[in-house]
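>> received
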Amino acid sequence: MDELIYDLADLFKVFGDSTRLRILYELIDGPHCVGELAEALEMNQSAVSHQLKVLKQNKLVRNTRSGKTIEYALADEHVKDILAIGKEHVEEL
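>> returned
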């Protein structure tokens, strides 16, 4: 049980970063490449790529390659659910 708790704590740390949350919210609408995300978030591509790497390592986003373009999307519906439940909780406060 301890290992599960530590893994869950690590997952919630990923959600504890506002930049990563902003990226996840952008991806709710569908896949985007790094350039599109950087423009939407008014950030440089390097910073966005770094955060996408963290999100991918934690299985919150996935990527697909089409030629030279790599598009990122939410890994699955669970990510949408976590964001929706978190938003609902915050709105109740």
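>> The chain has a mean pLDDT of 97.
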